Amino acid sequence: MTLPVGARAVVARVPEPVSSSLVRFVIVAARRTGSNLLCTLLGSHADVLCHHELFNPGGIFYALPLRDSAFSLGTMAERAADPLGFLARVWDESCGKRCVGFKMTRGQDPEVIDALLSDATVRVIVLRRANRIKAFVSELRAEAAKRWEVYDAAELDPARPRVHVDLRVLEGYTAENEAFYSEIDAALARSGSPVLRVTYERLLGADEQQRILGFLGLPADGVVLNAKSVKQNSCDLRDLVEDYEALARELVGTALADELADRGM
Questions:
Q1: Number of domains in the chain
Q2: For a surface tag, which of 28, 69, 102, 215 has the fewest beta carbons within 10 Å of its beta carbon?
Q3: Alpha helices in the chain (DSSP H)
Q4: 102 secondary structure, DSSP code
Q5: Does any domain span residue 254?
Q6: 101 within a domain of the structure (yes/no)
Q7: Cα–Cα distance between 220 and 224 in angstroms, integer?
Q8: Residue 131 maps to which CATH number?
Q9: pTM for the whole structure
Q10: Has residue 208 been placed in a domain?
Q11: Averaged pLDDT score across all residues of the chain
Q12: Could you tell me the mean pLDDT of each successive run of 10 residues in the chain, 265 residues long?
């Protein structure tokens, strides 16, 4: 995307409740911010079909219940030849659900994300992770293990080593993410699309889940969403970061210092 950086999105109008027409949505997020968790939470709702990364350069990742089925929206070659035609098939193949969506992460197909953000009929969920260091460390560990999704705790490797955090690389990573979110904000401000901003740290809370379901126009009373993804990393960065104390000294007086010490989700 070639969008101006720094603009802020306007407060979105409240979407109308679900009618007989399909509700289309997209989750927009930087990597390692809990998007798999959010996809599986939404996918546990009887009225929602939530795919994962349909435009990942490495593959087409459908909703978990469909991955061992004959469901297909086309091949990767077909997606590359006509990404917007592929996107149209996403909405056409609803599997009888009232709400259909998927996630897009930083760096994925710019033509598709521009089309999504400029379409005021698509509801946009912008997902962030408040703790930027944990997002960065999670990315380092995922890259080292070559594993980005875990749905069975037995598949976790307890012996995975700590990772080294280079402060300059961390600062560059957070700056790239902030620029990405600023571009998203600017695009949404122009289109006036319905937008809901959520954070990873609150996704398991009943209030946050009700807020998300309400945004999609779905009844929330008494609804419990169930996550299928498995948390891969400790909440305490002391367990994950090599030379933790040295990094703590480097961060003294910076905005990231409190995030390093945070032991929450």
A1: 1
A2: 69
A3: 35-43, 76-81, 83-92, 110-117, 132-145, 167-191, 206-215, 244-251, 257-261
A4: E
A5: no
A6: yes
A7: 8
A8: 3.40.50.300
A9: 0.87
A10: yes
A11: 89
A12: 41 42 96 94 96 96 94 97 98 96 96 97 97 94 75 67 93 96 97 97 95 94 83 82 94 93 87
